[in-house]
Specification:
single chain; about 160 residues; alpha+beta; Mannose-Binding Protein A, Chain A; 9-stranded mixed sheet; globular
């Protein structure tokens, strides 16, 4: 009986592992899969926040919208592993109403989860309306001027684009 239980446990663990692999393997080449979402970390060019939105749209995606701590930790760890000392745009803004942060494309208020750096957002100089993951704040969130040229992160549901490879 013990042997059957161990075998069943092994089969279930393998099935769960393969399910996770298959969800990430449906991402296009160059994209990184996590939890049925594919991420494209743009590190070959910098863009303003609006240009980043437009670029992501050409990739059938949007600027990343971070929904919970697990997703945030995945992105932070990826950036730490990447090792570049840079800031990255994601899809948050308070440009419509100062202090009311939303994910721009889904129009979801950023009230259920956020990971702002200490004393952020602060709208320094009265013109910081776009959300970045800031290297200077240990990859916590920061508000910055939308016109700054930065790297950025696009996301799309896994299986959204043609699978290459």
């Amino acid at each position: 009986m013990n042997r059957k239980l161990r075998l069943l446990s092994s089969v279930l663990c393998t099935a769960l592992y393969l399910q996770g692999v298959s969800s990430s393997s449906t991402c296009q080449d160059g994209w990184t899969g996590y939890n049925n979402v594919c991420y494209l970390f743009i590190t070959h060019m910098k863009a303003s926040w609006n240009e980043a939105i437009q670029f992501c749209q050409t990739q059938n995606s949007r600027l990343a919208e971070i929904e919970d701590a697990r997703e945030d930790n995945f992105i932070r760890q990826h950036l730490l592993d990447y090792g570049k000392q840079e800031d990255f745009w994601v899809g948050g803004t308070d440009v419509i109403t100062e202090g009311d942060w939303i994910w721009v494309l889904s129009q979801t208020p950023i009230i259920y989860y956020s990971h702002w750096a200490l004393y952020e957002p602060n709208n320094l100089g009265g013109s910081e309306n776009c959300l970045e993951i800031s290297y200077g704040h240990h990859y916590f969130w920061n508000d910055d001027s939308c016109s700054r040229a930065e790297f950025f992160i696009c996301e799309q549901p896994s299986g959204s684009g043609p699978v290459v490879g």
